[in-house]
Design a protein that fits this description.
It contains six helices and no strands. It is an all-alpha fold.
């Protein structure tokens, strides 16, 4: 590692290379199937205050949550903390320009995957 650092110690990136490095990636793939609707639903729940991005319990489907064992409720609680932190990031980015940027698409996919995998095991415990 030290050899690599020594080798490029005084290296200067050309203007042309720097311009190419600063260009965003061309990614026209858009959302995965169903994720655009998921984003719309999530944003609506945030705007109507049905979900509070600072309150993990606002994600709960209370009817399902109440029927879980104490251990399962603990697992839901922990998962909700992780999901709501990503929801908070998504909410902050969305408020900037209300566009489905690559970052927002990635966050939606992350939330969707976390929620889906968790609910496969514990049931429909979230309102999203």
């Amino acid at each position: 590692m030290k050899d690599i650092l020594k080798k490029y110690k005084g290296h200067v990136v050309s203007d042309e290379a720097q311009k190419n490095l600063n260009k965003p990636l061309d990614d026209d793939t858009g959302f995965n199937e169903g994720h655009e609707e998921f984003l719309k639903m999530l944003i609506e729940k945030l705007e109507t205050k049905e979900i509070d991005p600072h309150l993990p319990r606002s994600l709960y489907n209370k009817e399902v949550y109440e029927k879980l064992s104490e251990d399962e409720q603990d697992a839901v609680d922990l998962s909700a903390v992780n999901i709501i932190s990503i929801v908070r990031q998504l909410d902050s980015l969305w408020k900037l320009d209300q566009k489905a940027t690559f970052q927002i698409q990635n966050l939606v996919d992350t939330i969707f995957q976390m929620k889906s995998k968790f609910e496969e095991k514990h049931g429909d415990v979230y309102i999203i």
